[in-house]
Each structure stands twice: as structure tokens, then as C-alpha cells.
Specification:
Helices cover 56% and strands 0% of the residues. It is an all-alpha fold.
Length: 75
């Protein structure tokens, strides 16, 4: 076994630290991505109406009154 020089030791430490930082960044990115997908799925499920429910729309028609009442044909 050969002894490492201080420069080699420092370089190995830096490389190990960099690799560990990259690993943690990937872990955090995966967690954030899974969380975002979960929120998106929850919103999609909440927005869709249930198939067993009837959806009814009520609309009121306003017929204009006044003006000249008579023929709709204009000469």
C-alpha cells in the first residue's frame, strides 16, 4: 500500500464531496418531482365531476321588450 500525498488526499476529498453533493441534489430533485406530480394528480381528480352525478345548467333568457312590435321583415 502506498501513502497518498496531501495533494492526492485533498483531491479525493473534493471529488467525494462533489459526488455526494450531486447525489443529494438528485434526491431532492426526485422528491420535488414526485410531490409536484402528486399535487397535479390531486387537482385533476378534484376537478373532474363524479360520473354518477347529474350536472344541471340553469340559464335565463332575457327577451328584449319595447321597440316596434310587428313584422320581422324589413323592406
Amino acid at each position: 500500500m502506498t501513502a497518498l500525498t496531501p495533494v492526492d488526499r485533498n483531491e479525493r476529498r473534493r471529488l467525494r464531496r462533489r459526488q455526494e453533493t450531486i447525489r443529494w441534489a438528485i434526491r431532492v430533485l426526485v422528491i420535488v418531482l414526485v410531490f409536484a406530480l402528486g399535487v397535479a394528480l390531486g387537482q385533476a381528480i378534484q376537478d373532474n365531476p363524479r360520473p354518477d352525478r347529474t350536472v344541471t345548467f340553469d340559464r335565463t333568457l332575457h327577451i328584449p321588450t319595447g321597440g316596434e312590435q310587428g313584422s320581422t321583415i324589413t323592406p
